[in-house]
Amino acid sequence: MRIAVAGTGYVGLSLAVLLAQRNEVVAVDVVPSKVEALSRWESPIADAEIESWLAEAAAGERELSLAATLDGAAAYRDAELVVIATPTNYDPDRNFFDTRYVEQVVELVLGVNPSAVMVVKSTVPVGYAEELCARYPEGRFLFSPEFLREGRALHDNLHPSRVIVGVPRSSAFAGELEGAARAFAGLLVEGADAAERERENADGTRGIPVLVMGSTEAEAVKLFANTYLALRVSFFNELDTYAATRGLDAAEVIRGVCLEPRIGSHYNNPSFGYGGYCLPKDTKQLLANFDRVPQSLIRAIVEANRVRKDFVADEVVDRVMSLVYAGVEAPVVGVHRLTMKTGSDNFRASSVQGIMRRVRARGVPVVVYEPTLDAPDFYGAEVIRDLAEFKSRCDLIIANRWDDELADVGDKVYTRDLFRRD
Ligand SMILES: NC(=O)c1ccc[n+]([C@@H]2O[C@H](COP(=O)([O-])OP(=O)(O)OC[C@H]3O[C@@H](n4cnc5c(N)ncnc54)[C@H](O)[C@@H]3O)[C@@H](O)[C@H]2O)c1
């Protein structure tokens, strides 16, 4: 099948590579450097599997039918299927996702190839695909939620937890789209690791679970799933806040709580707050979707992150004050890495930035160690790329995630990474 993928970020590129095993794929982006990198079989994002698959394709050791272009119109004109994976940033003024980049692609596709099926992979507000059908009745839209994690994007699409495709009920093409939804799910399943098609699931079923449902339900799945993850992070963070305030050993409490099989000993490591590109914006979007629907929990999940960051910032400032009382003149706080996760290459909305802002607002000098950032400062805080210099200049180092490279200055480090894992 001829497929065009709009957007070569984590979502678009991992899908483009996955689908290029058995289909002719053209990846479209608006950033020339990304298209140029891909044309040289280099990944514009850090992702171990994508990087090695592209290198193997370049060496002729792996067959991938993948081209990259800035010319969206040409790519969409020839495609039977267009996968849309452009950004949907949260717009705090409108209190909603900004879906304009999705619509830019939709309008371009409708202009050159109105019968193409468009699968929206970007995360969108609940009800969005039905709105697209009302606004562009000639368009054939599907929505398929994406569950990958950054840094493991291709891995997660090779080993998907589930494949979900939503069909807008109001579409004039709803019947035809039901078949297209199953066909698209089939493309994702056939692109996955062969062993996944035979795997046994916890509920006794075999293979990758495929669900075809209404697009509004599918959109809700994505936002409720991410909000549940944010709830879990917030729960263990709040447990940690309680333990730290009352002088309890948080790790002991968490171990004891999580041995309950219905809770489980995973995804329970305290942090400075949930962060990254998706959880902060997706929880806010779900709260906005609850307009005139009774709730208290969803708002609490959004607010819990602010409360946690306030607490962590207070803890940091308390430690700074202790240093002052101990005779250190103007102690310097160092932020070790701006990234959200170990191994990640980007720091969109990472929680440590919230701590950094709060600490600086209290007049404490802050410097940053972030080797991937090629800039002299970050929001006014000096960036130091030399680790030894960073360690010697800082009186206190804050790290959302522990890194063994800090072992020799462990007594200076403030972290809530109790289990030393993501
Ligand atoms: N990053 C994740 O872990 C993740 C997981 C699930 C869902 N999502 C959702 O998927 C969407 C994309 O996320 P991402 O992390 O891949 O974003 P990204 O910012 O990494 O990549 C998006 C790409 O789209 C390109 N783009 C922008 N406008 C375009 C246009 N008109 N035509 C073609 N390309 C265009 C950008 O240049 C960029 O390269 C978002 O809605 C996000 O919420 C992301």
Automatic annotation (TrEMBL):
Leader peptide range in chain numbering: none
Q: Which SMART domains match?
A: UDPG_MGDP_dh_C (SM00984)
Query: What are its E.C. numbers?
Result: 1.1.1.22
Q: Which UniProt keywords apply?
A: NAD, Oxidoreductase
- Name the top EC class: oxidoreductase
Q: Report which reactions are catalysed by this protein.
A: UDP-alpha-D-glucose + 2 NAD(+) + H2O = UDP-alpha-D-glucuronate + 2 NADH + 3 H(+)
Q: Source organism's superkingdom?
A: Bacteria
Q: Which InterPro entries match?
A: 6-PGluconate_DH-like_C_sf, 6PGD_dom2, NAD(P)-bd_dom_sf, UDP-Glc/GDP-Man, UDP-Glc/GDP-Man_DH_C, UDP-Glc/GDP-Man_DH_C_sf, UDP-Glc/GDP-Man_DH_dimer, UDP-Glc/GDP-Man_DH_N
Domain named UDP-glucose/GDP-mannose dehydrogenase C-terminal is located at 334-421
- Name of one Pfam family that matches: UDPG_MGDP_dh
Pathway, per Swiss-Prot/TrEMBL?
Nucleotide-sugar biosynthesis; UDP-alpha-D-glucuronate biosynthesis; UDP-alpha-D-glucuronate from UDP-alpha-D-glucose: step 1/1
Q: Which NCBIfam families match?
A: NDP-sugDHase (TIGR03026)
To which protein family does this belong?
Belongs to the UDP-glucose/GDP-mannose dehydrogenase family.
Kindly provide the name given to this protein in its UniProt entry: UDP-glucose 6-dehydrogenase
Its source organism is Adlercreutzia faecimuris
